[in-house]
């Protein structure tokens, strides 16, 4: 029995040992497997970290590439837009220089036209000048002894260097007050003021009339005076004038108006209706011979009842508008020496005609 029991014991022990061995083996295995698992997990983790880092660096690379691309694109865009604006500015400057060239060509053509026009005008002037000189030579010089005609002519060169805005009655007994002396007009081409032209012609006429035997009284012999229109009429009255000639020139806004006219009191003048007939006669003689001598357009005799210098007159009076200083041709003519002599001849001839000489 004992042996049997010992055998059982041995078997049991062996079994137990086997079991222990088995357990240990399993444990070892398990441990080993756990280790292996751990290793594998570590490896997987390592690999995943590696992958992640690879992916990260790839992403970073991609990002860099993207950034580089967009910088390059931006630069290209910038370069393109700069090139475009350069092109545009080149185009603009080309257009500008084309325009400039065109403008210069136009100006050159205008200048040429102007030069041709001036040459034509100069030729015309020379031809006219020759014509005027010929015409002047055709006039016989009238010469009579001083004072021989017995007539006293008052010459009133219109205006003065400075107008006078003071007032005076426009005629005897009138309540209507008018400016004493207006400023007058001026030459649109010559720039000569009316008061200078009227004095020039007035002084020339004085000499011409004296040569023709008239006694002449001047209302003024210089520009620097202050004599109102009424006072001018008074000078004629005081001198016992047998006729008064008032010298003026016209001026209007338009350059086209031209020619000469004469203003006289007419029968409806409330102050001196008794002088209407003789004044009209005087005016008609003057304007006709003046325009015949000069070739100036004849605008005729015009009745007037509101001019102080006419209304205060006590002798036949005519106000001659020599021509339009605002008309380039009239203005230029009236500054021409030969033309001025013809003007004076014409006026003097008219006065001779009026007095029947
Ligand atoms: Zn005037």
Automatic annotation (TrEMBL):
<dbReference type="GO" id="GO:0008745">
    <property type="term" value="F:N-acetylmuramoyl-L-alanine amidase activity"/>
</dbReference>
<feature type="region of interest" description="Disordered">
    <location>
        <begin position="53"/>
        <end position="178"/>
    </location>
</feature>
<dbReference type="InterPro" id="IPR050695">
    <property type="entry name" value="N-acetylmuramoyl_amidase_3"/>
</dbReference>
<keyword id="KW-1133">Transmembrane helix</keyword>
<dbReference type="InterPro" id="IPR002508">
    <property type="entry name" value="MurNAc-LAA_cat"/>
</dbReference>
<feature type="transmembrane region" description="Helical">
    <location>
        <begin position="12"/>
        <end position="32"/>
    </location>
</feature>
<keyword id="KW-0472">Membrane</keyword>
<protein>
    <submittedName>
        <fullName>N-acetylmuramoyl-L-alanine amidase</fullName>
        <ecNumber>3.5.1.28</ecNumber>
    </submittedName>
</protein>
<keyword id="KW-0378">Hydrolase</keyword>
<feature type="compositionally biased region" description="Basic and acidic residues">
    <location>
        <begin position="113"/>
        <end position="125"/>
    </location>
</feature>
<dbReference type="Pfam" id="PF01520">
    <property type="entry name" value="Amidase_3"/>
</dbReference>
<feature type="domain" description="MurNAc-LAA">
    <location>
        <begin position="233"/>
        <end position="352"/>
    </location>
</feature>
<feature type="compositionally biased region" description="Basic and acidic residues">
    <location>
        <begin position="62"/>
        <end position="76"/>
    </location>
</feature>
<keyword id="KW-0812">Transmembrane</keyword>
<feature type="compositionally biased region" description="Basic and acidic residues">
    <location>
        <begin position="84"/>
        <end position="106"/>
    </location>
</feature>
